[in-house]
């Protein structure tokens, strides 16, 4: 399980370290893809494979499934951590997420999200505001 938030500087080669406590879970590889909220999602290879299986057998019409697969798989990058636990963030994903010289890595249960620091602060505030309402709606079901 991934949790917590971590701030890092991106080096001159566009590399960012992953939190040491998560590196073992990422040793087989990491897949990066654009997130819905202008962040980068980092999946451990095992979680990516689960997602891929779900997206080939989902309860969606074939045409919608093809579109979803194009959106997710065509924009994904498969990477490995270097000896110092870093990856080079692909430029298209950095541009998409507005990440320049600082990044926040947030643990989100089965995956990680990489955020522009200012956008993360806004998203975190919104998420925290709505968390109580969401929990209440879950308790009613």
Annotate the secondary structure layout.
Blueprint: E1 5-9, E2 15-17, E3 30-34, E4 40-44, H1 45-56, H2 62-73, E5 77-79, E6 86-88, H3 91-97, E7 102-108, E8 111-115, H4 117-140
Antiparallel strand pairs: 1-7, 2-6, 3-4, 3-5, 4-8, 7-8
Tell me about the largest β-sheet.
Answer: 6 strands, antiparallel
Oligomer: single chain
Overall 3D form: globular
Distance between the termini: 25 Å
Query: Residue-averaged pLDDT, rounded?
Result: 92
CATH class: Alpha Beta
Q: Per DSSP, what share of the residues sits in E-state strands of 2 or more residues?
A: 25-35%
Q: Write down the Rg.
A: 16 Å
How do the SSEs run, as a string of H and E? EEEEHHEEHEEH
Summarize the amount of helix as a percent range: 25-40%
Query: Which sequence of strands runs across the widest sheet?
Result: 1-7-8-4-3-5
By DSSP (H or I, 4+ residues per run), the number of helices equals 4
Number of separate strands: 8
- The CATH superfamily bears the name Transcriptional regulator MraZ domain
The low-pLDDT segments are: none
What is the level-2 CATH architecture name? 3-Layer(aba) Sandwich
- Classification by helices and strands: alpha+beta
């Amino acid at each position: 399980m991934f949790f917590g938030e971590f701030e890092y500087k991106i080096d001159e080669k566009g590399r960012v370290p992953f939190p040491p406590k998560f590196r073992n879970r990422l040793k087989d590889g990491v897949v990066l893809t654009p997130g819905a909220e202008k962040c980068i999602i980092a999946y451990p290879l095992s979680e990516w494979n689960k997602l891929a299986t779900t997206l080939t057998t989902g309860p969606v019409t074939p045409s919608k499934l093809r579109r979803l697969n194009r959106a997710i798989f065509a924009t994904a990058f498969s990477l490995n951590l270097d000896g110092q636990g870093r990856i080079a963030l692909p430029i298209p994903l950095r541009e998409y997420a507005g990440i320049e010289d600082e990044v926040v890595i947030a643990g989100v249960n089965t995956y990680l999200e990489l955020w522009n620091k200012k956008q993360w602060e806004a998203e975190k505030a919104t998420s925290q505001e709505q968390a109580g309402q969401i929990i209440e709606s879950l308790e009613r079901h």
